[in-house]
Amino acid sequence: MSSTIRLRLNEILIEKQMSRRQLAKQASLRPNTVNDLCTQPIQRLHLSTLSALCDTLHVSIQDLLVLEIND
């Protein structure tokens, strides 16, 4: 059995009615970075980016990351 960590960024943006562009501007991230995090499976995530996302969206790491068990 293996597991995957999934980023819930799209879901949180919808809940908060925030666009990717707004998030990028408020978090001081490149728009391409936010788009990649929303659309592509990610292999790594810088801690500074994770911190900026949590701070800007006012969520905890547990809200942003989900551990999914694969069969």
UniProtKB/TrEMBL annotation:
Residues 9-64 form the HTH cro/C1-type domain. SMART domains: HTH_XRE (SM00530). Pfam families: HTH_26 (PF13443). GO terms for molecular function: DNA binding. This is Helix-turn-helix transcriptional regulator.
